[in-house]
Design goal:
Helices cover about 40% and strands about 10% of the residues. Helix 8 links the parallel strand 8 and strand 9. The longest helix has 22 residues. The protein is globular, with a radius of gyration of 19 Å. The N and C termini lie far apart (about 50 Å). The model has no long low-confidence stretch (mean pLDDT about 90).
Length: about 350
């Protein structure tokens, strides 16, 4: 069965009958976990197995960036916020790049060992403290440093067998507003963006399997926020930059997404603009509205049905490419050494 264009969540640590019914819908192609879905390594492994009994082809994801964005904690290595690697990089760049690569590898192997396909990582935003919602989730306020460190992190993910997702295109680090709460507006020109925020995305394009566009308005470039803009997605990202990987919308439950209308309209707008997956979190009614609307639309609009089919051809790129045995993993020297070094960073 093809992978559907909707990614959504579930409420708890085990599947309800309502969850099973929803996950069985052919338009549902992805499941994203949150902290509420996690109790232990054993529990999340079992949950992933139960999900795949219903939909073997489904993509299972989580935000496991590190720092304040790490959904699985007890039983998993605590990953530092990415900017915590910066002091070491500026003193000992080679040692820092190796540690960051090992960190990406460790994060990925731990998730793969329990049945999760990928983490939405890394953050490629260029920031220090300008945007509160990004801040130390970013590797650095310097685009060249972001490129070097994120490239190392992705090399580790790739070696582990996990697909990479760069976010939040073309960069969330230069706006003050939090797109979870409002629609940020960035008045800069394209030249200004290209010489700053876009550098990591352009430089790392060949390492990226997926990109997540930001819910940000750039009125000097287009009248629509990036995630709903065919200009940004089809003309700039696909045509000019040549990106041919997967595009995930940012969460359609965020306040910034309401500019596109209700949940059904948001999902349709994101998919028509060029996103491959409509991500909707923490709103079951909204997810159901999206599924109902897209189902009806695909039946009456052949062009839309073909668009979805074409975009969904890319989604298998995000499947786990390796599996890891948890016990064997924890006995590896690379795993043990990396955990020790990361613990020293997170304690500071």
């Amino acid at each position: 069965m093809p992978i559907g264009p909707v990614m959504l969540d579930i409420e708890g640590t085990m599947l309800t009958e309502a969850d099973k019914q929803l996950l069985s819908h052919p338009l549902v192609g992805g499941l994203i976990y949150f902290s509420r879905n996690y109790e232990s390594v054993e529990q999340i492994s079992h949950l992933c197995s139960e999900v795949r009994k219903i939909r073997p082809e489904i993509l299972i994801a989580v935000d496991q960036e590190g720092g304040r964005v790490q959904r699985f904690k007890d039983g998993f290595t605590r990953i530092p916020a990415m900017q915590q690697f910066l002091p070491l990089y500026r003193k000992q760049p080679s040692a820092a790049l190796q540690l960051v690569e090992d960190c990406g590898w460790l994060m990925a192997t731990e998730l793969l060992s329990v049945g999760v396909d990928f983490s939405f990582a890394p953050v490629l935003d260029v920031d220090d403290h300008h945007c509160a919602v990004i801040a130390n989730r970013s590797f650095s306020p310097d685009p060249e440093e972001v490129t070097a460190l994120a490239g190392a992190f992705m090399a580790g993910m790739e070696a582990a067998g996990m697909a990479t997702t760069g976010k939040h295109f073309p960069g969330h680090g230069s706006v003050v507003g939090d797109s979870h709460e409002l629609l940020p507006v960035d008045e800069r020109t394209m030249d200004e963006i290209q010489t700053h925020d876009l550098i990591p995305f352009k430089s790392l394009m060949n390492q990226l399997n997926a990109i997540m566009p930001a819910h940000i308005m750039f009125p000097q470039i287009d009248s629509q926020p990036v995630g709903f803009s065919s200009h940004w997605i089809k003309r700039i990202l696909r045509k000019q930059l040549g990106f041919d990987g997967v595009l995930f919308s940012d969460d359609l439950s965020m306040e910034a997404a309401t500019i596109a209308g209700g949940y059904a309209e948001r999902a349709e707008a994101a998919l028509r603009a060029g996103c491959d997956v409509a991500l909707v979190c923490n709103n079951r009614q909204g997810a159901q509205e999206i599924i109902d609307h897209l189902s009806a639309l695909a039946q009456k609009d052949q062009g839309f049905a073909e668009l979805i089919a074409q975009q969904n051809d890319r989604l298998p790129l995000m499947r786990a490419k390796k599996t890891w045995d948890a016990e064997e993993l924890t006995s590896q020297e690379r795993y043990q050494k990396t955990r020790t070094l990361l613990a020293a960073i997170t304690q500071h």
